[in-house]
Amino acid sequence: MSDSNFKDLYQKRLKRRGEEASTVRKVVAIVLTTLLVVFIGGGIAGYLYIKASLEPVDPNAEEEITVEIPLGSSTSSIASILEENDLIKNDVIFRFYTKFKNESDFQAGEYQFTQAMSIDQLIESLKTGKVIREPLFRVTVPEGRKITQIAETFAKSKQTDFTAKEFMKKADDPAYIEKLIKQYPQLLTEEIQSPEIRHPLEGYLFASTYDFYDENPSIETIIESMLTRTQKNVKPYLSELENLSISNVHEVITMASLLENEAPTAEDRKKIAGVFYNRMEEEMPLQTDPTVLYALGKHKDRVLHEDLEVESPYNTYQIKGLPVGPISNFNKNSLEAAVRPKESDNLYFVADGDGNVYYSTNYDDHLKKKKKHIDSQR
């Protein structure tokens, strides 16, 4: 090979190596740039996520959530409790945040928090053992109350300036009901819009104590606070509906309202629920007196035979199965009884004036117990 040819080949190799090196540098530059962008982007995303996790779950929330912090609870277990009750967005962030700020010495006890509280407010409350926000007024709605009675309860409060009639007008407003169905899809269904339903929200305003933090809260605020409480209590039982002969929330709430009005104790409510389900399986009418009174629209100390003839989709002497809707609100143990009835072969029951309930598997035995415990006392 001549010197000139060797020189040309050498120069070509140098040029190729230079091009390869340039390509490698470009690839390395692209990779480093990509990694830098990913790192910066990840850092920004991480910062935004942490920032969002430190903010209140719902800045507009007013309902109080009762939380029990057991004695000796670690920061980790407290974080888990707060997350389970939807008071914080992320328990890991809470743990790191308290560690970063060197917060400790949290107090055991029962707390009432709201989703409007920030992590700093929750920490301060847990350290002092005190509730951050104090309600302006408190209203207790007992179980077994009809929505018209609930309207009267709030209308009579010195902290409200609406009448019971105005409360009911809003509660029965079709447009408002449509809005609520969208707002509470797990609780409210189209069944409450049936033209046979007397009041769409009957039975759905949970029996409980409610704290309010605004002067003169609106009717909407009150109703939605109560629906939120109902949804919270109903939600844990939704997965169990498939085991029942009734299959939706409306029917469960209707059943709970009947049990609330039939027996005073949690145990009897479970037993009566078993009786009702047995009768439904046998296609027997439930024949429960509280539905007759609701159909009549008035209270009576004693249901007469002629009362049983009233034609109404609520009267369980005239229809088979459940009434068209609930007849009142209910206690939590009535709801539990509706979902977890006590199994038996009983098809009948009768209650005396002292609250004792007697059960029977057949009609003849039922008549004997009725004669002994009811008729003989009159």
TrEMBL record:
One Gene Ontology molecular-function label: lytic endotransglycosylase activity
Residues passing through the membrane, by range? 27-50
Gene Ontology cellular-component terms for this entry are:
plasma membrane
Q: What is its main location?
A: membrane
For this protein, the Enzyme Commission number is 4.2.2.29
Swiss-Prot/TrEMBL keywords: Cell membrane, Cell wall biogenesis/degradation, Lyase, Membrane, Transmembrane, Transmembrane helix
Q: Matching Pfam families, A to Z?
A: YceG
User: How the protein sits in the membrane?
Assistant: Single-pass membrane protein
Q: What catalytic activity does the UniProt entry give for this protein?
A: a peptidoglycan chain = a peptidoglycan chain with N-acetyl-1,6-anhydromuramyl-[peptide] at the reducing end + a peptidoglycan chain with N-acetylglucosamine at the non-reducing end
GO terms classed as biological process: cell wall organization; peptidoglycan biosynthetic process
Q: What is this protein called?
A: Endolytic murein transglycosylase
Query: What gene does this protein come from?
Result: mltG
